[in-house]
Inverse folding.
């Protein structure tokens, strides 16, 4: 028995076939190595660029507030017949939802306590520094609301400068004080 391994050429390939097979294999290897070299060169010589872009002016919002006071006029759904123990009396129902007129009075009282910036005396408004109101973020959690004025972030209670102090941030307004006089400014309104 012969233990040697004999290599036999493929039966159907001629010398020209071997030449074409070698050429195709070499072409594929050359393409792959060229792509790898090109990728390596670009990754070394072209690091990623990180640019910070700041908008020099305030962008207009795609919405606007129509009114600061919203009044909802709700009516209960038609009730199915209930047993007497589950029905609410009219007095209990009034305790659950205050009438719309009470909500309007509360808003008017808030406006009286904190007048708008436009309602302050002209002398006080002239002495106030110019403020650019860039951002307004309201959160119902205490201490999480923040506004951006002149490029700086401020939380409730912060001193803005030149006698202006941020007292409170509300959903649509911010309450400031200037030399002890409180006033209200609509969110994103410069002065």
């Amino acid at each position: 028995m012969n233990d040697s391994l004999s290599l036999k050429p493929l039966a159907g390939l001629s010398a020209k076939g071997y030449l074409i097979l070698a050429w195709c294999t070499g072409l594929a290897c050359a393409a792959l190595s060229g792509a790898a070299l090109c990728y390596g060169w670009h990754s070394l010589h072209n690091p990623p660029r990180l640019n910070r872009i700041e908008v020099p002016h305030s962008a207009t919002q795609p919405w606007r507030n129509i009114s600061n006071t919203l009044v909802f006029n709700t009516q209960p759904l038609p009730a199915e017949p209930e047993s007497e123990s589950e029905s609410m009396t009219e007095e209990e129902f009034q305790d659950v939802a205050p009438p719309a007129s009470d909500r309007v009075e509360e808003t008017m009282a808030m406006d009286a306590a904190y007048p708008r910036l436009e309602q302050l005396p002209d002398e006080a408004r002239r002495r106030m520094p110019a403020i650019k109101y860039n951002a307004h973020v309201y959160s119902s959690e205490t201490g999480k609301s923040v506004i951006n004025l002149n490029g700086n972030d401020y939380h409730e209670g912060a001193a803005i400068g030149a006698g202006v102090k941020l007292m409170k941030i509300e959903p649509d307004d911010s309450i400031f004080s200037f030399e002890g006089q409180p006033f209200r400014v609509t969110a994103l309104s410069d002065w």
Q: What stands out?
A: The domain at 115-186 is CATH 2.30.30 (SH3 type barrels.). The longest strand covers residues 164-169.
